[in-house]
Write a structure and sequence with these properties.
single chain; about 400 residues; alpha+beta; hpI Integrase, Chain A; 3-stranded antiparallel β-sheet; 14 helices
Amino acid sequence: MSLYKRKGTRNWWCEFAARGFPTFRESTGTTDRRAAQEYHDKRAAELWRVRRLGEPARTAAADAIIEYLEGHAKHTSSYESFKRQIAVMRPYLPDYLDELDTDRLEKIRDSVIRDRKCSPATANRYLAALSATLHYAHKKKKLATVPSIPTLEVPDSEFTVLTQEKAAKLLAELPPHLNAMMRFSLATGLREANVRELKWSQVNLSERVAWIWARKAKARKMIGVPLNDSAVEVLQGELGRHPEYVFTFAKIGKEGTVLWRRPIARKASNSSWYKALKRAGLEGLRWHDLRHAWATWHAQAGTPMLAIQAMGGWATSSMVQRYAHLAGQKLHKEAAAITVPNVAPRVRDAQFSSQSDEESADAPLRIPVLIGVDDGIRTHNNRNHNPGLYR
């Protein structure tokens, strides 16, 4: 049994070896030598009980996280976001996964919301990262059961419904490279990263189609992108500017000459984007809202929901239903298929007085007087027993 440091790491690692058993190595999760020794001794005692007394092995939370990262998460598109989310949860976790139950998870959830002042939706994303770790450990038979994850109820997310007029106003305020990217996003519905990283090798102008490789798609499935007239116009305007990437940023000299042209390395929602939003009076608009606008415009134009789902690369039809609701104004013809009879009501209570034809229209309105009902008939407020209270 020993402590050591692996090349390229700061934390101490411990190694356990016993005759007749495979060598066991794991990180102590600390750079402090004394704390690492305490962790080593504790784990050595537990491992001895597992190997000699036959007690079930316990899975350390740190080991489960590392195993999920290396065994599954790093092969997904959400790898970076998962690392950030699980890093938030790590200080709140116990040493071992089997110490987690729903009650403790609720306390962890509430602590995260209190300490980080995050919304319920953000807290749910942190819990989702932890849930993925627990289910992976259960799949690997290192956790007997997975406790119920106490997520919070979150209302349907809202987004800015961008109209054609507002879009035109914003386009007029953007620099050339962002203007082209925004027009292409509105024409295809592609996510910002897919537009920014689009290469000419992914475009076939003669067939009017582009594609996003599975490794670059959020759902890890290849997306075929049909190019409409607006998308083709944008691409034709970018031809010849860069040998590899479609959208680029150029440095313009004093005489209007292009000093250099490079691929766009940073996110499109940068300082130029936010300044343009302010000038256009659209503060709060996110680049992802362009994707919502694309789907909404298609729904309002009558494009079938299954076609929108396929073009947008959504995994399930439920993810595009919100856009169908926004297209309600296009259902006026269908809504007019039925009519409701408009018949005046008949006055049934003789105790309610009405004005006669001879009375002036300027006469004061007569207030009906409630005098109760017959004995033996009960009402919700018992007016038959106390008719005087309602005069």
